[in-house]
Amino acid sequence: MSAKKQIIIVSMVFIVVAVGLIFIIGGKGGSSVEKSLEEAKAYYDMYDYDNAIAIYNNLLNTEKSCADAYIGLADTYIVKGNADKAMEILERGLENSDDPRIAEMIDELSAEYTEAENVPETTDISSETDITDIIPEENESDTSAIIGSETIPTETAVPETTVSETAAPETTVPPVAETTTPAPVVTAAPRTTSAAPITTTSVTTAKPTIEVPNFIEMDKDEAVKLAKSLKINLNVEFDKNDTYANNVIYYQSHRAGTMVSEKEQVDVFVCVNDQKRLSEDDVNLNNFFEAIQTWGNNNSDKVKSVTLNEKNSVVTISASSLKKFVIDESVAAAFAECKNASLVINSSTLSIVINSGSVSGTGKMDLSADTFGNASRVTLDMRAAGNLNCTASVTISDCSIDSDSLKEMTLFVNNKKSGSFSVNSNGKPVITVSSGGQYIIH
Fold first, then answer.
1. Reported pTM
2. Which CATH class is domain 3-206?
3. What are the respective helix, strand and coil percentages of the chain, to the nearest 5?
4. Which residues contact 395 (CB under 8 A, 6 or more apart)?
5. Which end of the chain is less congested by CB atoms within 10 angstroms, N or C?
6. Where in the chain do CATH 1.25.40.10 domains reside?
7. What is the pLDDT of residue 53?
């Protein structure tokens, strides 16, 4: 059998499969825009790029702001090896849509232009079989692609003699991934990335590649862990809902099975039946607790555990060491967002209590400290070079001076008599500090 007859037979098979798939998609329901996008994707997946282009263009005639259509159309031209046309389409899409994915795709495609210019001259791309050479000539009957009211010429249809002469015997429609050296700008189709090392940072990073699971009736904490493992940008909101149990998700903004990108936000609502609505303060406290937990995990040499008392808005750190005990700026900033929260750091020698209202700015909180003394003198050494970025109440728990004697003593800061201290119910001295230095009671 001749190569030409083989191409015709395979083309007919593809057309039959495409028609059947379109009928299946058409029966699913949904909006006409969604149907058109699904039909175009079906042709794209079967390498019938011209029919995909025609559907995308027809859709853009009536839906000029449809970002998915511009992205899909540009993607198709990229796979066909026409990056210039893809860039032209994306720029038109940027004029008609504010979807950030279009701008990201332009940036990445522009970056790949630069990569393509650096391809060694020994790479003979022109000798390779073009993707259009393996598409049946029936699909090339439409010689123009229309976007809005402007007619844009598409690639010239391949003459029948060209197809029969260039098609490889016995492999008339090979998968794109098997092309030996595809054009360096072919980056949009996931199946081609492994064949072209210079295109691994491809436009596909901006495409929806993550399938959203069913979060409904899932515990909030489990959902957060699952979202992190899937790299889903999950935004958690809280509200009352009598139908569901406490801390259970009852709504999600994207249906299960929807494909999203890493940057696309998925909203979920969590049931909180023990209160009418979780206040902003509660949300900020939870955000701070998560931030301090992460910081504690990264500083396990100094931190034993981190706990939260939501009722009293108190986060407690059990410290194994207060040497070089510096809390990051981002954690301090999250703490400053809390209006009436407290941070307690407990160690074997002292405890530090900080109210969120005293935290200023987003600077580091250097709480590095040490204590030493004897029966008539006790010293607190706050090792920070300057401002602590907060006001802390420090209780020296290993002080051996009795409470009656303490009441008669004086506080010196950096060898100068300064201010006063108090004695708590356990007879231990409490010093209020806001900057580094040496605090001595004697």
1. 0.41
2. mainly alpha
3. 40, 25, 35
4. 350, 351, 352, 353, 424, 428, 429, 430
5. N
6. 3-206
7. 93
